[in-house]
Amino acid sequence: MDLRHLRYFVAVAEERxxxxxxxxxHMAQPPxxxxxxxxxxxxxxxxxxxxxxxxxxxEAGAAYLARAxxxxxxxxxxxxxxxxxxxxxxxxxxxxxxxxATYSLLPAxxxxxxxxxxxxxxxxxxxxxxxxQVEALRSGVIDVALLRPPVADLSLTVTPLRSDRLVVxxxxxxxxxxxxxxxxADLRDADLIVHxxxxxxxxxxxxxxxxxxxxxxxxxxxxxxxxxxLVTLVAGGLGVAVxxxxxxxxxxxxxxxxxxxxxAASVELAVAYRSERGEPHLMRTIDVIRRMF
Length: 293
Known about the structure:
Elements: H1 3-15, H2 18-25, H3 29-43, E1 48-50, E2 55-57, H4 59-87, E3 91-97, H5 99-104, H6 106-116, E4 120-125, H7 130-139, E5 144-147, E6 156-171, E7 182-183, E8 191-195, H8 202-213, E9 219-224, H9 227-235, E10 241-244, E11 255-261, E12 266-274, H10 280-291
Parallel strand pairs: 3-4, 3-5, 7-11, 8-9
Antiparallel strand pairs: 1-2, 5-12, 6-10, 6-11, 6-12
InterPro entries: LysR_HTH_N, LysR_subst-bd, WH-like_DNA-bd_sf, WH_DNA-bd_sf
Protein name: LysR substrate-binding domain-containing protein
Organism: Nocardioides panacihumi
């Protein structure tokens, strides 16, 4: 079916006149009349009763007009939707966040995305370790990851966003909590709470590396999977933890945060997605995230 003929028919049916319909469609009257006759021939029914002064709908024409309007409206909506998809303003995306970003970044990010891309349906998964995020990107469980490098997977595009310095989370009654800053050497005899080595946490490697670079054998007492659990254990007096500074956004009673004194003691935060993907709404989301830093 030629959609142009549908539009021609609707114009004639609504104007009840070929001349006015031709003007509305910005075309000559003879081609318009010919197109309507071709449509009637294809359907095998008479849609319009013509006189020299006006045009009336047959009963079949009236029924056809209602359906034609519906079809054209759906086609217009489909075209509008296609343009919105091409512009990257509609779609669905899942974003995975490393623990520290869950508390410090996710609230502001969700507001920015809601403002700039209101037609995109976002889902968020917090407290994800970097290896879990990489696997979730590969499998399509998430579309975007806010994670801690390094990332060895060459199928991913990874863009650094910022560098977060490290701080020490201490029970408020810990002797070191009285200090304005803490050195790694001050933690020589402290019970450490760290992210899980079994789950290949980036922060586990960073923290253990800090201690070993200082010539200290770390006393790891607890390994956890979530940053919130880690800070909760600190609040409970079960040990101390070295964490990225954004974790301080997770303010719990019983926890004091102190800067860690060490040159270049920091970790990167990066945004990652599968390099093969380039959907407009995905790329616009990546752009919003990059512009926040």
